[in-house]
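Q: My labmate handed me this sequence with no annotations at all. I'd like to see what the chain might look like in three dimensions before we decide whether it's worth expressing. Could you predict it?
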Amino acid sequence: MVWRQAQRQICNVQGPLNKTHMKKFLLLIILGFALTSCEDQDKTNNDKVKAIDKDGSIEAQLSVKHISDTKDVLYIERKTWVHNVMVKDVVTTDTIPSLGQTRETAENSEGTDTTVTVNKNYQIFITVK
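A: Here is what I predict for the chain of 129 residues:
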């Protein structure tokens, strides 16, 4: 009996804990999350590193070069940095199959659209453990 009376009193409070205020508060929180989750369209390469911490890090550079219609070359360069000194630099190359070619629309120097044939590029995904 006492519990039900306490519940009624809490629900009928006209202070900062009433239902209308809670709805507004939740709406504000949801709106805040929505606004902060929007990505700024002007920013590109948000994850691009501007400076490498050379006190203790491993730097890796990957690139793919097209060498023929059927073959590409994958270049991987790894540098190991300890106390601002590069202690190791390893470059590996690997021949990989080409993904072929595709046709895309491009604008030429005169400003007209034309269809061109370009090599397909690999997507590079890196997993860090």
